[in-house]
Amino acid sequence: MTAQNHIGESPFLLLGLSDDPQLQPILFGIFLSMYLITVLGNLLIILAVTSDPHLHTPMYFFLSNLSFGDVCFTTTTIPKMLVNIQTQRKDISYPECLTQVYFFLVFAGMDNFLLTVMAYDRLVAICHPLHYPLIMNPHFCGLLVLVSWLLIFCISLIHVLLMRKLTFSPGTTIPHFFCEQAQVLQVAISDTLINDISMYVATVLFCVFPALGIFFSYHQIHSSLMKLSNMASKHKAFSTCGSHLCVVSLFYGTGLGVYLSSAVSSSAHRSKMASVMYTVVTPMLNPFIYSLRNQDVMGALGRLPGRVVSCLDGL
After folding, report:
1. For residue 238, which of 122, 139, 87 has the smallest C-alpha distance?
2. What span, in angstroms and rounded, lies between the C-alpha atoms of 293 and 90?
């Protein structure tokens, strides 16, 4: 076989989650339902935050950006998988694969940065309450999100440009349900040293540094709360962090599961199952965590139908 690089005529083959024909309709129904729940749940969060003046605060501004990122994160992988299941095809072109890698890196990295920024927001709110409005002003919050987006776009683009230089055999098979960067690098037949180094550097930038930032923020929050003598004040302050802690634990827990499943086991099935938790389940659960544990969001969601009706009446 002749090796091909760049846009080669022969597409990649995504093996998907299962080769069993009897499981395909079940998988299609399950993942379509999960995708629709993810999109609907996160869009409701965005609508609630943007339409309710009570939620026009830094914390909910970051939450709406996280919801937007989760919708895009899931849309990067699931629709293509659903199309392949429905059409009983497994092919994905090289440009499509690189596009999927790019946007997967963008939105996964953005989730990391947003969770870190949200932890910093809680740090300022609890440890420096008098300076909170001054520090977390709308201009600064917008700047944090903008810089995060620009940084992620540039770093992800570097990865994709480096991957364009790789060489693959015609009909290369990827043992996954989407083009995950590490899986694509493993099936390349050319040297991937530079790509591997850049991937490890990106892991530090996208995952390790944000995780350390979150840990530092909550360490400072914990130290500040321990100085309070009033238990009610401690509980009230810490309750504002509960939803964020749950999302952080779920996000990094499933992400760590993907890494460990790939590192300790050569089983592609285990790696794919861990990736499902990371790419599908976590974005689906985030709206429930932030709504069910937050009375402000629940109240805004309850008022949302009335606001929609008012808007329709005004047209």
Report:
1. 122
2. 40
Among candidates 130, 135, 29, which has minimal Cα distance to 82? 29
Pairing verdict, β 12-14 and 173-174: parallel
Q: Are 198 and 290 in contact (CB under 8 A)?
A: no
Q: Indicate the DSSP class of residue 240.
A: T
Phi, psi torsion values for 12, nearest 5 degrees = -75, 160
287 three-state secondary structure: helix
Q: What is the pTM of this model?
A: 0.88
Sequence-distant (≥ 6) Cβ neighbours of residue 67 within 8 angstroms: 42, 43, 45, 46, 49, 286, 287
Side-chain half-sphere exposure of 148, counting CA atoms within 13 A: 26
Phi, psi values for residue 99, rounded to 5°: -65, -40
pLDDT score at 7: 47
**Mean per-residue pLDDT, 252-256:** 79
Please say whether the beta carbons of 259 and 164 come within 8 A. no
Find where tokens 């909170």 sit.
Answer: 132
Alpha-carbon distance values, 183 to 67, 230, 285, 315 (Å): 27, 52, 26, 51
Q: Indicate the pLDDT class of residue 103, thresholds 50, 70 and 90.
A: very high
Q: Hey, what's the torsion of the CAs at 132, 135, 138, 141, to 10 degrees?
A: -110
CB count, 10 Å around CB of 102?
Answer: 20
DSSP structure string for 144-172: HHHHHHHHHHHHHHHHHHHHTT-EE-TT-
pLDDT at 314: 61
The per-residue pLDDT for range 34-45, each reduced to its tens digit, is 999 999 999 999
Distance CA 120, CA 132 (A): 11
Tokens for 159, please give them: 């990865």
- Maximum CA extent, the chain: 73
